[in-house]
Write a structure and sequence with these properties.
Blueprint: H1 13-20, E1 28-31, E2 46-50, E3 55-59, H2 84-112
Parallel strand pairs: 1-2
Antiparallel strand pairs: 2-3
Length: about 120
């Protein structure tokens, strides 16, 4: 549910103070305000957003305006789906990549070798 238009977007006041006192190239700004919306003034700054365990670096671009800071700093780590079948498919893909690299290396070495004199 969106915030009332009468109230306007929620932007943490402390963050706005920090932005007005800094330049974009001065490093990251540490924050715990994940719910704060990104206004156009934040573009070009780097924020260190707290994930509950550590701080995730978030560089704000124009596309991020209107979103929340917490959207760009995930709190959970995705490992991967799949079991035995997925592992076998990954191993086969890796083996195919290795053979392709070896074949490419052999062709480049053959091209570099000097031709036999006639």
């Amino acid at each position: 549910m969106s915030r009332s238009l009468k109230k306007g977007p929620y932007v943490d006041e402390k963050l706005m103070k920090k932005i007005s006192a800094r330049k974009p190239a001065q490093g990251s700004i540490k924050t715990w305000a994940r719910a704060s919306q990104i206004p156009p003034e934040f573009v070009g700054y780097t924020f260190a957003v707290h994930t509950g365990k550590s701080f995730e670096e978030v560089f704000v671009t124009e596309d991020m305006v209107g979103h929340r800071l917490g959207e760009f700093a995930p709190t959970t780590k995705f490992i991967k789906h799949g079991g035995r079948m997925q592992k076998e498919a990954e191993m086969a893909a890796k083996a195919a990549e290795i053979t392709a690299a070896q074949a490419a290396k052999a062709t480049t070495e053959a091209a570099k070798a000097p031709a036999a004199p006639k």
